[in-house]
User: Fold this.
Amino acid sequence: MTLLQLYKNSKITISVILILFAFSCGSNKSVIASGVASDKLSAKQVIKQHQKSDADFKTMQAKVKIELIQGDQEQGHSFSLRMEKDKVIWLSASFGMARMMITPDKVRFYNKLDNEYFDGDYKLLSDMVGVELDFMKVQNILLGQAIYNLKDEPHEVSVNNNSYALQPKDQNALIELFYLINPSHFKMDSLQLYQQLKKRMLQVDYSSYQKVDKQILPQYIKIIAVEDTDELAITMEFKSVSLNDEVRFPFNIPSGYKEIVIK
Assistant:
């Protein structure tokens, strides 16, 4: 069964990873998809419209509620999110009890409850979701954009449940990849990635978008990452968001904390 078939048959609305965020603000209007997918559009036309939909801003800040479910364990926390596009993504829990900052070169975080910190590369995030990540992939997931450059290889398109189902013409033998593109605003409805040999699946679903200062941004995102029989689900909902304000990114690892080492 392909990922596309899994999507059609799935009873689960699936989620978004580690720092994937969505936004809602009292003065901003929700965007309800009203477009109708047409089989007249070529893959190149869909790709062009999708790339034009990338949000244009310098900085962003928001409040985000993140819920994580793994096995029988469920946790929910509220965070402050700040971003300088293409440069920094920063998350802070209440009272600074936990804080994360990622840049194109580094992933850093600390946890005051456990007196631990991590200061390294993207291996930790990549291992978590089963897909090799970098800064731009994380940012693109946050903003509802494709994680790979769609112009790097030919794609084919079809209409599936009123979304444009976009996939590489020559699917990688190791990775099966699908994008479902919304016909109204051409952001992603879903990202689906399947690694059959490793029994891994990553799916990111965008159940709603909204308009913030004339930019279309995710409002509610979910991720599910599956490896064999292990499943990690993360949902994120933003309570408020603003763009292009002055923001700071304070981050200092407290002394005496134990380093988390990824082997």
Notes: DSSP finds four helices and 15 strands in the chain. Confidence is low (pLDDT under 50) at residues 1-33.
